[in-house]
Amino acid sequence: MKDVRSAEILCVGTELLLGDIVNTNASYISRRLAALGIPVYRQAVVGDNPERMRQAIAESFSRSDCLILTGGLGPTCDDITKEMVAEYFGLPLELNEEALERMKSYFSSTGRNMTKNNEKQAMAPVGARVLQNDWGTAPGLVIENGEKTAILLPGPPIELEPMWRDRVEPYLFERSDSVIVSKNIYILGMGESAVEDRLRYMMEELTNPTVAPYAGNGECRIRVSAKAKDEKTASDMCDELIEEIKKTEVGQFIYGIDVDSIENALVMKLRDRGLTVATAESCTGGLIAKRITDIAGCSDVFLGGCVTYAVDAKVKLIGVSSETIEKYGVVSAETACEMARGVRLALGADIGIATTGIAGPGGGTPEQPVGTVYIAVSTKDGETSKLLQLSPKRSREFIRICAATNAMSLALNS
Amino acid sequence: MKDVRSAEILCVGTELLLGDIVNTNASYISRRLAALGIPVYRQAVVGDNPERMRQAIAESFSRSDCLILTGGLGPTCDDITKEMVAEYFGLPLELNEEALERMKSYFSSTGRNMTKNNEKQAMAPVGARVLQNDWGTAPGLVIENGEKTAILLPGPPIELEPMWRDRVEPYLFERSDSVIVSKNIYILGMGESAVEDRLRYMMEELTNPTVAPYAGNGECRIRVSAKAKDEKTASDMCDELIEEIKKTEVGQFIYGIDVDSIENALVMKLRDRGLTVATAESCTGGLIAKRITDIAGCSDVFLGGCVTYAVDAKVKLIGVSSETIEKYGVVSAETACEMARGVRLALGADIGIATTGIAGPGGGTPEQPVGTVYIAVSTKDGETSKLLQLSPKRSREFIRICAATNAMSLALNS
User: Fold this and answer.
1) Which residues of chain A make contact with B34, given a CB cutoff of 8 A?
2) How far is B103 from chain A (nearest CA, A)?
3) Regarding the domain delimited by A7-175, which CATH topology (the fold level of the hierarchy) does it fall under?
4) What's the pTM value of the predicted model, to 2 decimals?
5) What does the CA dihedral A101, A102, A106, A112 come to, rounded to 10 degrees?
6) Which ipTM score applies to this complex?
């Protein structure tokens, strides 16, 4: 098979057409395809309707040589994606014994009985490559037919994303005769448009490697991608450009290369230094602890934390003094510092991280509008705090994510 | 003009095809159209490419009588949506004086000068209805041509959403004569295929109302939708069917109707009863607290919690006895119960919720593989615990989400 030259994405699901869920699969796959240098000409969504699926599949293959379909692989009679693609290629379906065995053991390992209708998920078009699904029941499929390739993946993002990473990308790599290496530069404290302004000449003039900025949740990330015959050459090309970017004004805002997230950067740094951390969260309500414990193996670094949502909890759990709260208010640098120190001492950690603020939409005042957040870090050398004044127009979710990110950044730089 | 019988959505933008942004416009518009009883047959995304747009517009109108386009209405030469639609209908563009005046006054009110290229945004096909944009510069457009209607809206969600609500819906209301009402049944403890098995006759035979199951993150949801002349009639049709579903075997697994999420169901129930809750989390690492505090205004119910990730933190923060941990182990019903009681007493809450387990991927043993989680709830009447044995093949993320959901469910039923 040759390199994939262009792709389209077809997401199947009535819940998408009804707007019950946002189509994150299309953006996820598009982003990953862009990183591989494969252009996406179209994304489409159709319901579980034979006639409309038939039409969409035929249209896509009239334009592109690869079609990625998501959803409609489940056990119900509504799930017809596989059937429609098999029909398009004129291939009969057969029971795939290996897929059936895997599904049976998956069910027995989760202590459930496999109902008869689940067998449907083990059917595959003759000659298809079955992509093992370790994150759910429906396997994925790759169907190659002449110049055309269909890749079928389960709809739930929690299955689709690891399937893409661990099954589809290795497959696409096999087919390709060049490799693309991407590296990500993580930035906090400089907005996307400012970053773009400083790096515009690179973005506009370079074609290999390329530079692209991405923004989201108050953070910014720059992706550097290089295409070459082998991985080492592509990787070196990226590194060279990253060194150049570090020398610009952007350099001082970089908190890591390929660190994945600020929580991961923090855990790695603390581990390197043999330090432990504890959290005391008010407005972020457990989000910092949740994000740190998203990382497998964080237990050598993270001892625990308190979610001191009610005022009283701050006093009872981590010994914030009632006088401090009375004098300076719950949302204040002083309270944030006492929280950070309190949780550090209560758990015997090297570093304490704290947040207290107003995430909204209610609770704002003229003096302290929604978006006012104090973050603090405590170490044996004392406390540091910082006021974040986020826009009151921002969502509760954004304010909480941003507060958590900045609190971890303060700890990273402490 | 007649009622809109069916619609398609075409979102224009290279940033969507690159996966740089998630397409929230498509889900927003679809949700609002569903509420109006207008079926959406397809959503599509194309780049700012004349040939591909031309093809997408023609395809859509071959299937549907209404096409909603978003994006590509800006001042740059890349913005060609309006031009392509005008071309499809064979209508020339003319300068709309009213739109031009509004745009001039918008610019002056934001203290900016209007550059010449902005005038392009005031051009409209002859006979089009201009939708005033009070949230940005590019006005929207409605173009009616025979049986076909095109609705053009600006791409940024911050402009699109109010434009839809305040400009497009009043227009569609003038044209429509029926509504669809949907209600969601939330289920925990019964898988999607088992649910489908029990309700197959409803799913296959009913056309109005309809029944459709959705699965994700270890939960299941059934959506019941009815179409009628007015909202009351459609709502009653849904209620009747929901009562019927409650009488089936599925009934005992229902935890709420239109409750949005288990955390929301829990907060609402506790609020109704005037009760407060506190959390002690080990393997879920703050996720329960995070999910509860995702809900604005949860502070009347949620006092706070502890993330007792290290063994020592369980003893220090919430007084779990070292003997219990030594005798039964950290991952045990006894430790879970002491954690739930400990945090309840420490914070003076009515209910304590606790989790302790092995989220993986490391840390499993032959006796306690990854996926072993104890959840517990404590009230003044004592403690209840439950063992969850999730598949060790599941991701860390899934195990944590599932543990958190089940712990909240145990509290909901306490």
Assistant:
1) 18-19
2) 24
3) Molybdenum Cofactor Biosythetic Enzyme; Chain A (3.40.980)
4) 0.75
5) -20
6) 0.73
